Amino acid sequence: MFFVLVLFLQYKLSKPGKYKVYVTPGRFRLECKGAQGGSSFNDGKKGADGGFGAYTAGTMDISGERTFYVFIGGQGESRVNGDAKGGYNGGGKAGSESPPDGGDDGAGGGGGATDVRLGNQTLAARIMVAAGGSGASLSHVGAPGGDTSGRYFSSANALTVSTETNQSSGNENGAGGVGETVPMLPLGVPRPGSPGSGGGGGYRGGKGGKYVQLNPDVGVGDSGSSYISGYSGCKKHDQLTFKDTSMIAGGSKTANGEFQLTIIFNCSKNCYTCTSADVCTKCNTGYRRYNNKCYSECPDGSYAPPNNNLICSQCSKSCKTCAGSNSKCTSCNANTFLLNNKCQASCQNTVNNDKYGKNTNDWTCTKCQDKNCNDCLNNYQKCDVCNSGYKLYKSQCVLNCPSNTYDDNNVCKDCH
After folding, report:
1. Which of 28, 147, 178, 217 is most buried when burial is the number of CB atoms within 10 A of its CB?
2. CA-CA distance, 393 to 413, in Å (whole number)?
3. In 3D, which of 134, 137, 76, 142 has the Cα closest to residue 105?
4. What distance in Å separates the CA atoms of residue 267 and residue 281, rounded to the nearest whole number?
5. For 234-289, what is each residue's pLDDT tens digit?
6. How far apart are CA 250 and CA 305, in angstroms?
């Protein structure tokens, strides 16, 4: 199994096999193409091409990190003497010549389906399937991979919608049927004719072709049916439904199948689900949503509501930050000052008998630095008026004016 972590805008896988794909939250476009059936031989030369695989597409919205398993269908084999194997992921085996390895009219094996499974590798986990085409027979091309129903060629050589391979009929395991082997006549004498081709893989596998005596169209097996969760006529998967879906029987894909994933947008960091790259609607566990983004801690201008652990709510416009409620400020914007969880243009002179002034370092109202100061409203480090018994000298309070100064109404001034 190959492992793929989706990091770039587009991924394309075309080598038959199984892939484990990790997808982060966002919106994505998925496209699948089923594999072509194998070519036939007619008298030892190439007879006709196998049927092309079907095309399916849809857009999906992903919440949280999800794991997908992608199965790329392989083209059916071509063998001149029959027994051509079916392609990877459900292509049906062609019938045998009679006697085995003795002929030169081998039919083609059926093409495998390309499908996407969500969460696990069971058939029930399939969310999208592009059917494979059936193998060719003699000079007749294989049937192209079907849409909601497989395809087959009627006795009138007309490509016809199958009533035996659709959403509820056909091989439940998604594998195409085995083509009929040319029977032997009594005494081991080979019967004239060529084997039937392998049926195409799909949501339901197409039946294998019958052995051919006269009409080569009856030797062509049925193609498989395709499926998209959410497409008209298809049942919905319980975990994911596509929108903007497309399903085309017998697209233009030759050889092996193909899967392509295109990122329309990824959700922002730590977002669980979103409606655009810039609009998150739910965050991962442990994160809160604010202004359509996710944060481990509420950013400036918001707070964590005590009764809701999913969001951050906006603070009052007067607060730079707040806590507990939108009006309980914990810091203020420039030119306003925090006091008692409020932001204001100026500081109150007295609170609980303490004197306060402006602190432009952290935009708070701070106790006057000088304990003997009675008024420091303009700057907590510079006193404007001292308590009784103290003199103001160079914005500080002193008991006595220093030398070369004199007391002028409790203010020390320089002598002249």
Report:
1. 147
2. 8
3. 137
4. 10
5. 999 999 999 999 999 987 777 999 999 999 999 999 999 999 999 999 999 999 99
6. 57
Query: What are the tokens at 280?
Result: 């998150």
- Looking at residue 49, the DSSP 8-state letter turns out to be P
Cα dihedral 330, 333, 336, 341, rounded to 10, equals -10
Residue 20's beta-bridge partner residues? Answer: 3, 69
Distance (Å, whole) CA 412 – CA 395: 10
Peptide bond into 144 cis (omega under 30): no
* C-alpha radius of gyration, the chain, whole number: 40
Q: Which residue in the block uniquely carries the two structure tokens 């029959």?
A: 82
Q: Is 332 left (phi over 0), alpha (psi -120 to 50) or beta?
A: beta
Q: Copy the structure tokens of residue 263.
A: 């990122």
CA distance 54 to 150: 10
Q: Is 318's pLDDT higher than 60?
A: yes
Q: DSSP state, 37?
A: P
Q: What is the largest CA-CA distance in the chain?
A: 144
- Note the pLDDT of residue 250: 87
